Amino acid sequence: MAEELSETAETAEEEPIKQRKNGLYPGVSDELAENMKSGWADTELRDLEPIPQAAETAARRAALSERFPGERLVIPAGNLKTRSNDTEYAFRASVEYAYLTGNQTEDGVLVLEPKGEGHEATIYLLPRSDRENGEFWLDGQGELWVGRRHSLTEAEKLYGIPASDVRELADTLREATGPVRVVRGYDAGIEAALTDKVTAERDEELRVFLSEARLVKDEFEVGELQKAVDSTVRGFEDVVKVLDKAQATSERYIEGTFFLRARVEGNDVGYGTIAAAGPHACTLHWVRNDGPVRSGDLLLLDAGVETHTYYTADVTRTLPVNGRFSEIQKKIYDAVYEAQEAGIAAVKPGAKYRDFHDAAQRVLAEKLVEWGLAEGPVERVLELGLQRRWTLHGTGHMLGMDVHDCAAARTETYVDGVLEPGMCLTVEPGLYFQADDLTVPEEYRGIGVRIEDDILVTEDGNRNLSAALPRRSDEVEAWMAAVRG
């Protein structure tokens, strides 16, 4: 990795350029500074079309404007975060900001200023790197170091929002009058500029509204979710093809294989891939992925591709590493499959959100009683939650730009709410028999099974977006054999 020349780029007239403590160049000569100012082609992009979701983001801003009339609304993208010394984590804009603008660049801020009956939106961004003061080649975030930013004019064309220089925004906000709300937790500088103008309660109302706005997906969002799922299906196929290599190495080979598909076809993985083989499948969020992959064991792969617009899939399959379930593995797998079938059947408009969870948990409780692992009757098990020793987690969650989407929504509109067409959620029951669980027969110990699909609520029921990946045990075996050739 190249060493950056300076920490900041400033005009020579104002202040000498700050050098890195152990930088190899002592400074910049006047001749070099002058030379770097000229001889560059005009690269302004003049034929840009609006981003595909421009109409949708405009409609979302209109709904936000209607909800908070007469109030200034501030929604930041967030800032870069240091990973180590002078290297940063890959940036991901706040979901609220990306949802309302389609923009994904660091330091961006959307501001809705009250005007007349509604609001006037402005997107505040960093303009292109300055060539006069040397920022474009001297600053660590300059164009020659990390790539070209869009000009403000280009941004206006892309996002359909007037654009201004974000470096002037803090001062503007300090002088602002009237009621203000800000989405907290992303930009400390912006929050500091508003510290005497906002309240935690009012800001939370803004965050909750933006979370609930995402409960029902529009047509663009459904299309992006399907893209994410389709790429994820191909990622699972990639993994099945290299299980022999994973056996020769570790779970990391599975993680890396899926990651390649995510980066080639999407923006990233939507969350840390869970590549859990053998008893690791009993750890719900096993992301160390450093264990062995052995023939005869099960592999629980929970993974999702994130699209370039931040929509993520969330799919889980539990696969026999050698391609064939053992008798006990099949028994447990088939029970989870039956529970998932019951859960998916309960997903339909007008149903309570909790119905799919209750339906799946009932099936699992029945199996546990039937196998003699839980003392019945089933109603007693469910009332006391005794099945949770082996089922552990809820049966699903909303899905979208966050893998656990809409998390800030009010309970009455989410888990105590009613399903509507356009909602997208996961259905993912599981059974997990820990390796050290002495309450179950030894043959059960170390087996973990989860099956998860992404389900869209439709006008007449539901659609399984991830149906292209087989679920039934015999179909899984046939699919794995076909993929392996």
TrEMBL record:
UniProt GO MF annotations: aminopeptidase activity
Recorded catalytic activity of this chain's protein: Release of any N-terminal amino acid, including proline, that is linked to proline, even from a dipeptide or tripeptide
Superkingdom of this protein's organism: Bacteria
Pfam families: AMP_N (PF05195), Peptidase_M24 (PF00557)
Keywords: Aminopeptidase, Hydrolase, Manganese, Metal-binding, Protease
Ranges annotated as biased composition (Acidic residues): 1-14
Domain Aminopeptidase P N-terminal, chain residue ranges per copy: 52-191
Cofactor(s) essential for the protein: Mn(2+)
Entry keyword Nucleus: no
Enzyme kind, highest EC tier: hydrolase
PROSITE patterns xref list: PROLINE_PEPTIDASE
EC number(s) from the headed UniProt entry: 3.4.11.9
SUPFAM superfamilies assigned to the protein according to its UniProt record, in alphabetical order: Creatinase/aminopeptidase (SSF55920), Creatinase/prolidase N-terminal domain (SSF53092)
Entries under InterPro entries matching the protein: Aminopep_P_N, Creatin/AminoP/Spt16_N, Creatinase/aminopeptidase-like, Pept_M24, Peptidase_M24B_aminopep-P_CS, X-Pro_dipept-like
Family under the similarity heading: Belongs to the peptidase M24B family.
Protein name, UniProt field: Xaa-Pro aminopeptidase
Species annotation: Streptomyces djakartensis
